[in-house]
Amino acid sequence: MQQFIAVLQDRKGGPYRTQRLAAASPMDLTQSLLERKQPVVAVLDKRKLAPPARKRVKPLDKVYFFEQLESSCSLGFDPARAMEIAHITTSAKTSGLLPWVSCDNPLRRIAGDMVRRLQQGHTLAEAASQFPNLFDNVALGLVEAGEHSGSLEETFGSIRQLSGRNEKVRNKLVSNSIYPGIVLGIAAIVIYQLASGPIPQLGRVLEAMKGGLPWQSRLVMSTGEFIGTYPVVYVMFIAGPVYLLACLPGLVRRMPVLHSWILKIPFLGAMSLASIRANFVQTLATLKKAKLDNLKCLLLLQAISWCYPYRAALARAYRRVANGEGFATALEDEVDIFGRRTIEYLRVLEETGADSEMLERLALVMNRDLDSAIERAETIAKPLIVVALAGVIALIAAAVYGPLIELYKHI
Q1: What mean pLDDT comes out for the span 148-167?
Q2: Among the listed ranges 118-132, 168-182, 300-314, which one has the minimum average pLDDT value?
Q3: Residue 8 phi/psi, 5° resolution?
Q4: Are residues 100 and 182 in the same domain?
Q5: Does residue 221 or residue 364 have the better pLDDT?
Q6: What predicted TM-score, i.e. pTM, was given to this entire model?
Q7: Structural domain of residue 184, as residue ranges?
Q8: CA-closest candidate to residue 144, choices 277, 291, 304, 280
Q9: Which residues of 47-62 are buried (b: 16+ CB within 10 A; e: fewer)?
Q10: In what order do the strands lie in the sheet with 2-9?
Q11: For the CA atoms of the chain, what is the radius of gyration?
Q12: Of 135, 169, 200, which residue is a domain's last?
């Protein structure tokens, strides 16, 4: 028996509390608490990780790795054999920051360790739980659901799709940050040159003519002096927001108090909810295809997201279904998480006795909603970036031409 930390929430919107309990696995503890009608939100495993599990795995390497597992499972290979093939075909080196620089690929050691564990009789979910750098909470939840439903091919396909989407968003973030970074870097050089040369000389000329520099020029002079004195601070000012955006998902996941707040932020909250709903419906379709009952589906669906409000909503829905309510009816009070449209779709499918194929079609609709939410956020962000950069350029232009206009007035 191992020691785990159970996170519980006694009422909707209430504070989270923790309790240390012993169980054979996180899934067993979660099921036991739910059956006792305890509102368990998450079960945390605080064990010490092995060295390969502490190394960062590149997002693109993750996509290729899960693509290999998906292909092997589609050919009918069991998890141990599929993981062995992935271990053999995974390169020992991966490209570093520069294309001609390579570093050790932790995926090879991870795959080898997982092969050993699978051959010793561990389940795929148990082996995957040892490597959170490869299988995050969402991927681990999908693996558990796939093992119970016997549909690992669809599971690895979903994980690959999620990893690919995350890599796509990350690449968009980096590509959209390159242009502002270059402009701000050039602006720093121009501002420093203006502040250390022409503008002070024009200021002395205007002072002799009983005039003064406009506020734009004084601001540029102060900024240039600051950049010249603290260049590292300015570089951090440019790179800091980009780094913060890149680290924001991990930071939010580690701080449950932020989970409910992140869902209320415009655009970011909409994207998070769209992602939650798409994963929920996609996984539900996979589980229903394997003929699992509603209680088992809710138990496995809880693990596919890091979002505590979502997990708490499913814990409450589990209790309602256990009391005899229908699946869609149990989600009625959680419309803020699952959305009115999703619940109504599920209600109609439940009342008509539709099969899993209809759920898969609904999953396609939800995935389109997610892609649309990402595109809308990008459409709004790009003009804002352009406007901000235009403001910087306008300030520099005003700082240059302002003194010349003042000088012309005093001639």
Answers
A1: 80
A2: 168-182
A3: -125, 155
A4: no
A5: 364
A6: 0.71
A7: 137-411
A8: 304
A9: eeeeebbebebbeebb
A10: 16-23, 2-9, 40-44
A11: 27
A12: 135
